[in-house]
Amino acid sequence: MAKARSTPRTDPGAAQRATTVLVAGGVAIAAGLAIAGTYDSRIGGAVTLLGWALSLFGLHRFGRLGPA
After folding, report:
1. Is the pTM of the predicted complex or chain greater than 0.70?
2. How many C-beta atoms lie closer than 10 Å to residue 57's C-beta?
3. Signed CA dihedral, 49, 50, 55, 56: sign only
4. What distance separates the 2 farthest-apart alpha carbons in the chain?
5. How far lies 59's CA from each of 9, 31, 56, in Å?
C-alpha cells in the first residue's frame, strides 16, 4: 500500500494547475448545461458529468497542496 504524504508538495506551479483544472471543470459544467438546454440532453449530460469529474479532481488536487 502506498504511504501517505505527511508534508505538502513544494511544486510552485501546483496551485496554478489545480486552479486551472477547477476553472475548466466549471466551464465544462456551464457548457454542458447550455448544450443540454438547447441542443441534445445526452451530449449535454455527458459534458456536465465530465465537468463534475474535473471539478472534483481539481478540488482534490487543490486540497492536497496543504496550507499556504
Report:
1. yes
2. 15
3. positive
4. 47
5. 15, 19, 5
Please give the Cα distance from 5 to 23 (Å, whole number). Answer: 26
Residue 35 near residue 44 (C-beta atoms within 8 A): yes
SS3 7: coil
Q: What is the pLDDT of residues 45-60, one digit of tens each?
A: 999 999 999 999 988 8
Q: Which residues of 19-54 are buried (b: 16+ CB within 10 A; e: fewer)?
A: eebbebbeebbeebeebbeeeeeeebeebbebbeeb
Grid coordinates representing 22 are 477547477
Beta-carbon neighbour count of residue 58 at 10 Å?
A: 20
Helix (H) or strand (E) holding 33: helix 14-38
